[in-house]
Every structure is written in structure tokens, then in C-alpha cells.
UniProtKB/TrEMBL annotation:
Superkingdom to which the source organism belongs: Bacteria
Keyword Metal-binding carried by entry: yes
Lineage, top ranks: Bacteria, Pseudomonadati, Acidobacteriota, Holophagae, Holophagales
Record carries keyword Iron: yes
Annotated GO MF terms: iron-sulfur cluster binding; metal ion binding; oxidoreductase activity
F420-non-reducing hydrogenase iron-sulfur subunit D domain segment(s): 9-131
Protein name, entry field: Hydrogenase methyl-viologen-reducing type delta subunit
Name of the gene this protein is made from: mvhD
Amino acid sequence: MTEAFEPKITAFVCNWCTYAGADLTGTSRIKYQSNVRVLRLPCTGRIDFMLLAKAFARGSDGVIVSGCHPNDCHYTSGNYHARRRWMIYRNLMDFMGIDTRRVTFSWVSAAEGARWAELVNEVTTTVRALGPYTEYKELALTGVE
């Protein structure tokens, strides 16, 4: 008998908002899927989207990038930089044939613990439906032709 597929999801989150929101989720004892591994960064504006590629290369089936809401960034405009980078990265993913549903870009504030739980559950359900992500390793091994 085969085991049900459980996706591995990596979350790159802002220290000031989303990480605090995820912490609030835990302290409020709100239940959510345990498939997400959180990596706390000072600001989403500093994320080099090669980190996302590295997450896929290391076995992630999905990625979440989440930070402060627009106009609430601790560093003034970091979330705007992240949003611009996401638009470019999304086009690159389309070009490479990577399903963009595997990456979720979202805003979660420090006071939105329930929103974090919702987001994690939604992403886990979506990625579970997509199945394991093996194409990245195949692309890396064979090269793009």
C-alpha cells in the first residue's frame, strides 16, 4: 500500500509581520497543516528569488513568500521590491515551464494569525493536488534543450 503524498512547503517570511503572525497562530492554538518549514528573513524585499529555485532544488514541492502588507513595511518599501521581483520571477517560471501555482506570494500582518493558518492550509491543499514536484530536478539533470 502506498502512503498518501504530503507536500514539503518552504515559507520565506518577513521577521516583522508574517513571522509574528505565524507565532500568533501558535500562541492562539490555531490548528493548521504541518507541511510548512518557515525561514525567517529580515524583509521580503531582500529575498533573492534564487532562494526559491534552491528550495525546489532541495525537494520543496511548493513555496510561500509572505511579508508585510503594502504601506506597512518595517523598512518602508521592501514589500514593494519583493512584489516587483515576484512579477519578474513569475514570468521566468512560465518561460521555464514551472507551474506558478507552486509559489504563493501573500501579505500577512503580525495580527493575522488566523490568516496565516488559512494561507498554509490553502497552499498545502493546492500543492497536494498538484502532486510531487520532480520536474526541477529533471531540468537540472538534463539541462534545458
